[in-house]
Design goal:
The chain is an alpha+beta fold. It contains 10 helices and 23 strands. It folds into 2 domains: 265 residues, FAD/NAD(P)-binding domain (3-Layer(bba) Sandwich), CATH 3.50.50.60; 154 residues, Polyamine Oxidase, Chain A, domain 2, CATH 3.90.660. A hairpin with a 4-residue loop joins strand 20 and strand 21. It comes from Canna indica.
Amino acid sequence: MTSPGLLSSSFVLHPIKSRKLFLPWNPSLPRPRISLCSAEPNSLRKAASGGGRERRNPMDGGRTRGGGPGGRSPRRSSYGTSRRSSIKKSFAQEQVVFTKPVAEDPVVAIIGGGVAGLVCALTLEERGIRSTVFDTGVHGLGGRMATRVIDPKPLVFDHAAQFLTVSDSRFQKLVDRWFEKGLVREWKGLIVELEAGGHTTLLPYSAKRYVGIKGMRPLMDSIICENNLVNIVRPCWISNLEPFNGTWRLTEREEQHGQFDAIVIAHNGKCANRLLSTSGLPLLTKQMKTLELSSVWALLAAFEDPLPIAENEDFGSFEGAFVKGVQSLSWMANNSSKLFPLDSGIPQCWTFFSTAAYGKQNKVPQENIPNATAEKVKDDILEGVESALGLSQGSLQKPFYTRLQLWGAALPTNTPGVPCIFDPKGRAGICGDWLLGSSVEAAALSGMSLAHHMADYFQTGGTQSDEFAIGLNNSFHAIDGHDIGQFPGLQPEKQSEQQACIAV
């Protein structure tokens, strides 16, 4: 009989029926005989035994195990299938505990195809481990490494990550690979600090700045093109995680997407919180819900003629500017000169970002932005451009193309300061830039760290749980940086050199 204490917890967890061990992917390998004890809470560690045939359905690179009599799908009596979104999230979760040894050829599900998720998949492949990346992107992979191309001109905009810097040798190796393939180049354009009224301050930095030659997104595409052990599923919104017979089963609105030996959460925000809230991973859920994210508006605008920015005889006109003293504007960059420095006479494609404070004040559901809000934000940002450049109100030329986007979960404002989070009992981890800061480099290093950590864990057979726990209880602290993120290594060469002011 179920104890009163269990009935008052978040879930009533069914006993597990023991099943035959999963057949290895290589049928020539012998099938070991090991008693099954998987994915069960501590209070139900002793499960009732039962029968059942086993079958394989290689769905999206995962494992589907355990069919019913006659090969039919298993009934909902197995552990985890009773977990539904209708269960109140306020209840405490029961910790999932996997005790069955990890398969000899583990397969990992990675939910999120941004920098962290893709680099995690790449690193897992380097360790000989297969993975499937599930991403919601309709236009492509990469998350905030997003590039928008508008035909037939074409108009090209980097509308999230604007450039990247390097301060770690591990990330430098990845950037060097991009450089060798002709995907990135050093951005030598002038970046300034622009104050309201058109006053600029030179920012002579020592670190190199890199941009994608054709935008940021091709950098992410290149990671997948060279892999053989990575499967991509998109667009896909994984809506439920449930432990089942020693694995994790993933579903999207009742459609199954396979079973996996471990999972990686490589995205954040409300969708990640909702996904984890009924997963049986309370420690991961707690850390994810502690994360705070800013909201930033992005306006893409194309102009027929160059903006009225005065050129300095020594440095020319700026291509990017951190804006100060303008509530609706924190950054502006000329994509045309940044991406196509040798092309003249082409439309001027600018990316404008609001401040985080403005984004918070004007936040709406990003999936359904009201027309009135969109018009207001666009007008406010363009007025902010006029203020920053010292132009009279209404004098800025009207762009012939605009597109507005709200990054509702733009950048982290706090961090636990760990490279990754991993719960070995539940065989689940988290990677993302927010674990180390708010930069492209932080995202890549987090993905690498989690992949190596999980690979080392797999080598033990998954039997040494406690020593592989990381980041589950670390406290958070605030993140410093610009409203558009951090740029490691981007420090002024000499403080005195920042005092050189130029009148625009």
